[in-house]
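just leaving the lab so this will be short. what follows is a protein written twice so to speak, once as letters and once as structure tokens for the fold. can you read through it and tell me how you think this chain folds. thanks a lot i owe you, the record is right below.

___
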Amino acid sequence: MTSAVDPTRFCDLARNEEPTCTTAAVVAIKDPTGAQSWGCETHAGRALEAIAGARISRFHDASAAQRLLALPWNHGGGAGLGR
């Protein structure tokens, strides 16, 4: 996985009632059904806390991924990374 942010990829995790997020996506979140979406650190954190069984599947920013792994959603202390 690369550490550089993909400048062409923007956050897809904003909720329907929110305006489109124009922040660069740094991690991909995969839910238990296998659906995957890229998001900024803020929206990825919200998704990880709201979706049971969601995991980080890919990332462009290792620092952001580490900060997200430290959030309460990863309460089990496991890797929090999925494939």
Observations:
- Helices lie at 41-50, 62-69.
- Residues 41-50 form the longest helix (10 residues).
